[in-house]
Amino acid sequence: MIGFFDPRYLLFAAPAFLLMMWAQARVKSAYHRAMQIPAPLSGAAAARHILDQAGCQSVAIEEVGGQLSDHYDPRAKVLRLSHEVYQSRSMAAVGIAAHEAGHAMQDAQRYAPLVIRNFAVPAAMYGPRAFMVLFIGGLIFSMPGLMWLGVICYGGVLLFQLVNLPVEFDASNRAKAVLADLNIVDRDGALAVKDVLNAAGWTYVAATLQTLMTVLYYVMILMGGRSRD
């Protein structure tokens, strides 16, 4: 059996799954604690102040549904914040809002990894679909070349995630620095923000590790098949 029901895949993916579970638990814990610490501004107000000070007055801020659905849209030049982050005057809210504002600042400065990540978005979106079609087609018709092509397409997801790591870490570093520089957080608030953003960073690391191990698993499957031939 190939894939999720193969014990070898479980062995490959177990470290990434465990890391993801730990990271998600840490995010929830850090977010809950930071939500209890008051901030002088709401998430929306903090983001607006940060963007204006950075010369990004043209970037709009919108409230959207969902929890932790916060993101920056580089095409529309809009920073979208979930209801809780948009409205709340807490360290969790200003930390997340500042992180997303960091992406807007990256965009304004044409931060190279962000530019590369934006170009890699189609590979992340369509790579898994192409992988399924090509790999299963190659398996059915005994065409290893198609299977290899499928794995290469899935590798596009890995490329996106590898480029995404410095983008996310840089946005968090910008957030920590600008919140302190603009006196939006005090020492205790800075520690709470750091805890939230560092925990979120581990989720990106775990996702990247999971994709890497999945690619290596399928490479192992194909290499094993070739050696038997």
UniProtKB/TrEMBL annotation:
Residue ranges that the Swiss-Prot or TrEMBL entry lists as coiled coil: none
Keywords: Membrane, Transmembrane, Transmembrane helix
Keyword Glycoprotein: no
Transmembrane region(s): 119-141, 201-223
Keyword Membrane: yes
PANTHER family: MEMBRANE PROTEASE YUGP-RELATED
Name used for this protein in its record: Neutral zinc metallopeptidase
Organism from which the protein derives: Symmachiella dynata
